[in-house]
């Protein structure tokens, strides 16, 4: 049993380690904006909740101060700006991969104006967008986990309330049993008292029967 528990803890810890946030290079086909395959950055969102990821991603993209369009888990920001890049405008293509039942990743490609961002050519811009994407993934993961913790706490609270209800039912039943035991003891005492009275009543009846017989004999005495 100890080995089983240790093994579970080991694999659980390994699973957590495997959930490290990683930003990697990719080539992605986008349907929104100018369609086609583009060099991009992809980050995993460990334990991500799709609704939270979508909400935070829209907020992140609005911070680019451009025009935001979205279509079926894809987003496009045109003429965006970032303080870190000065007044240079850019377009961003964004896609969410995954669902409520599968791991979530966020991908974005950046059109710097005539050329798509490439690590070997645009090192400064690449570093800025990579850092923002990684920061976003951390926030989305932490927020998702916080929600999951609250959900699990809510479930635990409900289970605790159900347990307390069961304990109360048990205590009420025990109290009812004690009350019934007292009533049974009282009734058993009543039975014993009744039996004692019954014996006394039998004696009274026997005495009364003898009196009756004595009185009936008086009729015979009169006739004689």
The separation of the N and C termini measures 105 Å
Corresponding CATH architecture of the domain at 19-150: 2-Layer Sandwich
Shape type:
rod-shaped
Order of helices and strands: HEEHEEEEH
CATH-derived topology of the domain at 19-150 = Alpha-D-Glucose-1,6-Bisphosphate, Chain A, domain 4
Bin the strand percentage: 15-25%
Uncertain segments are 1-17
* CATH top-level class of the domain at 19-150: Alpha Beta
Specify Rg, calculated over alpha carbons.
Answer: 43 Å
Number of strands: 6
Largest sheet: 6 strands, antiparallel
Individual helix count: 3
Helix and strand composition category:
alpha+beta
- Helical fraction equals 55-70%
Average pLDDT works out at: 87
